[in-house]
Known about the structure:
The protein is of the alpha+beta class. It has four helices and five strands. A five-stranded mixed beta sheet has the order 1-2-3-4-5.
Amino acid sequence: MSEIIVRTTTLDDAPIISQFNQLMAMETENKTLPAEVIDSGVKRLMSKPEYGFYLIAEIDKQTVGTCMVTTEWSDWRDGLFWWVQSVYVKSDFRKRGVYRAMYNQIKALAADQPDVYGFRLYVEKENIIAQKTYESLGMIATDYLLYEST
C-alpha cells in the first residue's frame, strides 16, 4: 500500500469533509444530515481555529479519511482534552492504518501544545470494531456516560 499522508485542512477541503460526515452519519446512525447545515458547520469550524480543526488522510492524493478535533478545558487538570470526532475512513481503506495515522498525527500536533493533557472520543456502543481500534492505540473506556440536550 502507498504511504498515508495526514495533513491539516484548508477551506478547499470543506466539500469532502461534509461528504464524509454525511456518509458517517448514514452508516453509523442511519441519519441524513442536511447538506446546508453540515456544509455551514464544517466551514464555521474551519474559520474559527479556537473551536478545533480537521485532518485529512490521503493515499496517492485521494482522500481516504477525515476527522475533527475539538477542545475541552479541564479545570481538574489545568489543561485541554482534545476530542477526536467525526472520524470517517472510506470502507475500502479500513483496517489499513488510516485512522492510526490520523491519531498519530493528532498526538504529534499535541506534543507541541503544552496545554494539551489528553485525548477523548465517543463511540457507538455497538461499534465493537472501532472500540478495538481505539484500544489498540492505548485508549481505555471510561466510567462516564454521555448525556445531551438540544
